[in-house]
Write a structure and sequence with these properties.
By secondary structure, the chain is of the alpha/beta class. The protein is about 30% helix and about 25% strand.
């Protein structure tokens, strides 16, 4: 945290990578030692770490994985057991599977981690039925729907990027004013609808644009170039002072 004045809190897939410009953004962040990066992703730790290294992106101040279920600190990626415990309290993959095992048009597609179960859904009716079955079974969980892929992911109720980001910022003693958020998809919505300034990259979900505040800039460029575009607008007159290192997370 030494010398860091601000943080970029950003999704990875579709926001930092996937549309070109990754090297330009990596070079910019390498020159800005005052900006730390908090990565928030639906990927697992292993997958996210590999992608960050592959594109020469800065080592994280914090890495939030599985859409908010896990928090890791610093370049060493020290697991935050307190946060993970909060997620485990009411998360039961077995109960999810039991609730959805006989729903017509819904089939189990596997799991990428302890925190995410994937299902193939054949229609909108199947999607509605799956959500109804989870509620009737009293299963505390969130659902993420990808209509393009016909995929429904079921994750812990408390696995929210915005919620995890608030927790990380509190531990880092960084205010919302010093945090800039970037995203493109539904699972970024609670970050983009928070108190932060930020950017929705040009390839972002059209539905998100209907609910964004005027603090969120709509970039002209997709992916990393859009993040860079937003950062440059945000930083042109920001003169925040350096912040203290958080207790227990000194790197």
């Amino acid at each position: 945290m030494s010398g860091i004045r601000r943080v970029l809190a950003t999704d990875i897939d579709g926001t930092l990578v996937g549309f070109g410009g990754e090297n330009d953004l990596a070079d910019y962040l390498a020159r800005r030692s005052d900006i730390g990066v908090i990565y928030l992703t639906g990927r697992t730790r292993h997958n996210a770490e590999g992608l960050i290294h592959r594109h020469n992106l800065p080592g994280p101040v914090a890495l939030v994985t599985d859409t908010g279920a896990e928090v890791y600190w610093g370049r060493e990626l020290r697991a935050d057991d307190r946060w993970a415990f909060q997620q485990r309290k009411d998360w039961s993959p077995r109960r999810v599977q039991d609730a959805l095992t006989s729903v017509p048009g819904v089939s189990y597609a596997g799991r990428s981690s302890h925190w995410r179960l994937a299902y193939r859904v054949e229609s909108e009716d199947g999607l509605s039925s799956a959500r109804t079955h989870l509620i009737r079974a009293g299963v505390p969980a969130r659902t993420l729907w990808d209509p393009a892929d016909g995929r429904l992911d079921v994750i812990p109720r408390g696995a929210l990027k915005g919620r995890a980001l608030r927790y990380v910022l509190q531990n880092l003693r960084i205010t919302a004013h010093h945090c800039f958020v970037a995203g493109d998809a539904e699972n970024d919505s609670d970050m983009l609808q928070g108190r932060y300034q930020g950017v929705l990259v040009a390839n972002g979900s059209a539905e998100l644009t209907l609910h964004l505040s005027d603090r969120i800039y709509r970039a002209n460029y997709p992916g990393a170039q859009g993040v860079l575009e937003g950062l440059r607008r945000w930083l042109k007159d920001d003169a925040a002072r350096p912040l203290a290192s958080p207790p227990g997370f000194v790197s």
